[in-house]
């Protein structure tokens, strides 16, 4: 399967590809329009303040905008080892355009990979339904549209973060795996090595899904010494070396500088406090107490970690799992909450927000029932078990370990595609008009509901800070 064939739009995909591209371009155009005056003013800065204050899209970070504007290793290197380097060419392009036009073109530049990744995520999911599960064209189109009607999949089309890239890489991996399973081919070691290095380089945890793909495709051959060495150990070691070098070269010097600056500022603050009058010191202590209270509230939203150091510092053992499942995992991921719309959990939004309508919970229940029924219908499919193993791994790190549990919905592009894939097995097994009509109505409702809220937000005015 050559790259040209892999990325070429097939004749049967062209009509929906045009419609899809129109929607993707329109959403990105609206988002650029909304933030244009703020981010493209000549000489405006510092940019990180504008991005931090104004770019609020739920819990997504504006780090990509920061890196494309003024390149640096902005992502946590052991969780996203390659991401900063993948952004580097876009920074070069932005430097050239900024010199040419005198404005920061970051929004236009970041929109390009977002649109490409969103477009091909749709294409590869459609091909999974069509070629791997063997649905009819109409059914494959319906379920792919069903997926893109989900709230945080629709939002991912415009989010300047790494989640859309991860979704694209994961769906390519699943498509290649599905074709290999269907045709009895081997998942070659070099395919696994390349996909792991890039996929895990963008988001480390997603690299496990490449290994799961190799296992479910090759089965016992996965454990051959040659395959384990070249497809698992070698790329994992190379990625670890990359992350360690990146930390030593870029991050450690910054940490030392920040630590020295922190000590110096603490000494200066201590000297200023000593010179304050009793009234000034009282006001200072009140401001300090307010800051500590704000930090305490933020810490309460992130939950108590298992440990305060290493990877376990990102875990959470106190946030309610059950409420997270129905309000956030299968709730906000699929349908936006109207209250606190796209607010950041670490700023103003509560960890749990209740829907205004009982109907929203009914819709959520229908989506989950389709998922469960699809699992039952496809229980003998090796490909479905591959998808479920990937989903199960995400549920382990989010629901068991509690990683990102307070805002699990922003991770939806990493795993929510398993829902329509499972539903595809239901549609393949139960070919009734009523089932198709139910999914169609559900899809139309989600598109109208989520699309209206998102479009209203994008057309709303924004305050410009100068």
Secondary structure topology:
Blueprint: H1 3-7, H2 14-39, H3 47-54, H4 63-69, H5 83-101, H6 106-132, H7 137-148, H8 151-156, H9 163-183, H10 189-202, H11 207-218, H12 225-274, H13 278-302, H14 321-332, H15 358-377, H16 382-400, H17 418-429, H18 433-459
Helix pairs in contact: 2-6, 4-5, 4-6, 6-7, 6-9, 7-17, 7-18, 9-10, 9-11, 9-16, 10-11, 10-12, 11-16, 15-17
Short account of what is shown:
With about 475 residues, the protein is mainly α.
Based on CA atoms alone, the radius of gyration comes out at 24 Å
Q: Quick one: overall form?
A: globular
Low-confidence stretches: none
Mean residue pLDDT: 89
Measure the end-to-end span.
52 Å
Largest sheet, in brief, is: none
Descriptive tags:
mainly alpha; 466 residues
How would you portray this structure in words?
The protein has helices at 3-7, 14-39, 47-54, 63-69, 83-101, 106-132, 137-148, 151-156, 163-183, 189-202, 207-218, 225-274, 278-302, 321-332, 358-377, 382-400, 418-429, 433-459. The chain has 18 helices and no strands. The chain has 466 residues and is mainly alpha-helical. The protein is globular.
């Amino acid at each position: 399967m050559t790259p040209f064939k892999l990325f070429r739009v097939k004749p049967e995909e062209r009509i929906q590809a045009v419609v899809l591209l129109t929607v993707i371009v329109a959403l990105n155009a609206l988002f650029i329009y909304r933030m244009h005056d703020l981010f493209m003013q000549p000489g405006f800065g510092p940019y990180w303040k504008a991005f931090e204050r104004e770019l609020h899209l739920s819990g997504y970070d504006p780090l990509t905008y920061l890196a494309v504007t003024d390149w640096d290793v902005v992502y946590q290197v052991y969780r996203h080892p390659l991401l900063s380097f993948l952004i580097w060419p876009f920074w070069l392009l932005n430097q050239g355009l900024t010199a040419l036009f005198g404005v920061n073109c970051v929004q236009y530049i970041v929109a390009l990979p977002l649109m490409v990744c969103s477009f091909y995520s749709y294409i590869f999911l459609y091909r999974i339904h069509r070629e791997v599960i063997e649905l009819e064209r109409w059914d494959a189109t319906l379920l792919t549209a069903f997926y893109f009607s989900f709230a945080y999949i629709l939002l991912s089309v415009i989010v300047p973060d790494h989640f859309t890239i991860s979704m694209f890489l994961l769906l390519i991996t699943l498509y290649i795996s599905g074709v290999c399973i269907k045709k009895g081919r081997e998942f070659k070691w070099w395919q696994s090595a390349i996909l792991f290095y890039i996929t895990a380089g963008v988001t480390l945890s997603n690299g496990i899904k490449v290994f799961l793909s190799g296992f479910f495709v090759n089965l016992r051959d996965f454990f051959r010494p040659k395959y384990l060495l070249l497809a698992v150990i070698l790329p994992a070691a190379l990625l670890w070396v990359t992350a360690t070098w990146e930390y030593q070269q870029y991050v450690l010097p910054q940490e030392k500088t920040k630590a020295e600056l922190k000590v110096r500022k603490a000494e200066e603050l201590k000297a200023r406090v000593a010179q304050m009058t009793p009234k000034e010191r009282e006001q200072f202590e009140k401001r300090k107490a307010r800051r500590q209270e704000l930090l305490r509230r933020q810490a309460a939203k992130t939950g108590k970690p298992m440990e305060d150091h290493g990877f376990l510092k990102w875990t959470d053992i106190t946030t309610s799992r059950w409420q997270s499942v129905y309000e956030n995992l299968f709730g906000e991921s699929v349908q936006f909450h109207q209250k606190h719309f796209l607010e950041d959990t670490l700023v103003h939004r509560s960890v749990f927000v209740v829907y205004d309508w009982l109907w929203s919970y009914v819709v959520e229940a229908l989506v989950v029932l389709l998922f469960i029924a699809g699992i039952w219908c496809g229980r003998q499919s090796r490909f479905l078990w591959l998808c479920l193993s990937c989903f199960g791994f995400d549920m382990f790190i989010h629901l068991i370990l509690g990683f990102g549990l307070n805002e699990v919905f922003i991770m939806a592009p990493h795993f929510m595609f398993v829902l329509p894939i499972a539903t595809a097995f239901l549609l393949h097994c139960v070919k009734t008009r009523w089932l198709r009509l139910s999914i169609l109505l559900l899809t139309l409702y989600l598109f109208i509901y989520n699309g209206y809220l998102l479009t209203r937000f994008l057309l709303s005015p924004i305050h410009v800070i100068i």
